[in-house]
């Protein structure tokens, strides 16, 4: 036998011969010797059994192999998580009875709708011009007004399935009108504010995978104001008319004419931009008038007589009045008014028995 036969490394320490009897991976090196039946024995055949490296290596011998790691499990579906915090990161689009909230997980579809950002919320552009002075420095400043507010809304959806994602895409397309106006609400830390918007340009989609989609939406708000989500309502009862006194000399027949009475209330516009209320007058009242004493402007209907079943609706924004649903023009010298930022005193005038009332509705406005 060789050096590795029965000699120094024979039947003893390293088995029957290591490299001498069979191949290295047969009954030799790792066969019945060192890690086989020899001095370092172990438990019965391991995971690799008799195979792999013959009867040795990690077979019957002592140092058995670690079992194979279990096959990798199928990746668990990652549940979408709405972004942390409220305030800046929540809002909604609503139109025709449909509402799409952002910054929440939809309880029905399990889709997470995320508000990524909005451009144009800070300030709208202005419309106006300055004409150069002829032969002189500088220019003449013409009238200037706030222009419609362009907006770019960025949102995304993370859905549990591709089907849910595609249905979410369809819903977002449907909730944004082309020629009508939808309500866009943005929850700022100070207050929730809204604008009336419609599409402007395109709605682009970037589907980064089968269950997610990023949206970039071009919008325009014809009215650049941002309004409070809360609608304020105040009711003012008309004052009863009083008869005039008698001043001698008295000549029969005597007629005691009713004197118009007024009633007023203080209203607050908590925003930083004028806002235009809607005023409803419910009879009976004759020659009604509504005025903002802060600005000194009033709208009058001198020839109008309202019975107890009549209602006059005056829209200060569109500058129109409707009597029982039919258009009714105000007096030509009427001056349409707004609620200025801060406190305003609104007055109802006319001849009434005290049962008529005025209902004022408005939202705070910001620019």
CA-based gyration radius: 42 Å
The count of helical stretches stands at 2
What is the strand content?
35-45%
Instruction: Tell me the overall shape.
Output: elongated
Q: What fraction, in percent, of the residue positions are helical?
A: under 10%
Distance between the termini: 102 Å
Query: Main beta sheet, described?
Result: 10 strands, antiparallel
The CATH topology of the largest domain? Jelly Rolls
Give the class from helix and strand content and strand pairing: mainly beta
Kindly state the mean pLDDT as a whole number? 81
Indicate the CATH architecture of the largest domain. Answer: Sandwich
Reading the helices and strands in chain order gives HEEEEEEEHEEEEEEEEEEEEEEEEEE
Give the number of domains.
Answer: 3
Would you state the CATH class of the largest domain?
A: Mainly Beta
Number of strands: 25
Low-confidence stretches: 1-64, 76-88
Description:
The chain has 367 residues and is mainly beta. It has 3 domains: 1-69, no CATH class; 87-121 and 146-228, Elongation Factor Tu (Ef-tu), domain 3 (Beta Barrel); 232-366, Jelly Rolls (Sandwich). The chain is 5% helix and 41% strand. The chain is built from 2 helices and 25 strands. Strands 1, 2, 3, 4, 7, 8, 9, 10, 11 and 25 form a 10-stranded antiparallel β-sheet that branches. The longest helix is centred in the middle third of the chain and has 14 residues, at 162-175. The protein is elongated and about 125 Å long. 30% of the residues are buried.
List the helices and strands and how they pair.
Blueprint: H1 28-32, E1 91-95, E2 98-102, E3 104-105, E4 112-119, E5 126-132, E6 139-146, E7 149-158, H2 162-175, E8 182-187, E9 192-209, E10 212-221, E11 226-228, E12 232-237, E13 242-243, E14 258-259, E15 261-269, E16 278-282, E17 285-292, E18 297-300, E19 305-306, E20 311-315, E21 320-323, E22 326-327, E23 342-352, E24 357-362, E25 365-366
């Amino acid at each position: 036998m060789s050096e590795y036969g029965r000699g120094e490394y024979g039947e003893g320490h390293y088995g029957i011969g290591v490299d001498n009897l069979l191949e290295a991976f047969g009954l030799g090196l790792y066969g019945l010797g060192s890690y086989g039946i020899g001095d370092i024995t172990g438990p019965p055949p391991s995971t690799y059994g008799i195979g792999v490296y013959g009867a040795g290596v990690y077979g019957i011998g002592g140092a058995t192999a670690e079992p194979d790691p279990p096959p990798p499990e199928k990746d668990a579906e990652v549940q979408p998580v709405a972004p942390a915090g409220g305030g800046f990161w929540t809002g909604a689009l609503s139109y025709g009875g449909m509402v799409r909230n952002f910054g929440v997980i939809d309880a029905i579809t399990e889709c997470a709708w995320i508000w990524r950002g909005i451009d144009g919320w800070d300030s709208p552009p202005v419309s106006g011009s300055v004409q150069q002075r002829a032969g002189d420095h500088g220019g003449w400043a013409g009238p200037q007004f706030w222009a419609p507010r362009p907006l770019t809304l960025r949102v995304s959806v993370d859905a549990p399935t591709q089907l849910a994602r595609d249905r979410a895409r369809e819903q977002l397309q449907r909730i944004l009108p082309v020629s009508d106006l939808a309500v866009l609400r943005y929850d700022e830390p100070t207050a929730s504010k809204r604008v009336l918007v419609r599409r402007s340009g395109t709605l682009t989609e970037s589907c980064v995978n089968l269950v997610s989609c990023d949206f970039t939406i071009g919008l325009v708000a014809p009215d650049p104001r941002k309004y409070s989500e809360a609608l304020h309502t105040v009711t003012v009862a008309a004052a009863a008319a009083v008869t005039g006194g008698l001043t001698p000399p008295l000549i029969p027949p005597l007629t005691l004419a009713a004197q118009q009475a007024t009633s007023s209330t203080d209203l607050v516009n908590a925003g930083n931009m004028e806002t235009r209320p809607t005023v409803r007058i419910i009879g009976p009242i004759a020659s009604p008038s509504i005025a903002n004493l802060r600005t000194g402007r009033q709208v009058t209907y001198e020839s109008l007589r309202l019975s107890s079943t009549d209602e006059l609706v005056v829209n200060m924004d569109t500058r129109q009045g409707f009597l029982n649903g039919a258009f009714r023009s105000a007096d030509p010298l009427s001056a349409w008014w707004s609620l200025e930022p801060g406190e305003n005193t609104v007055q109802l005038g006319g001849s009434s028995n005290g049962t008529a009332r005025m209902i004022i509705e408005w939202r705070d406005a910001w620019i």
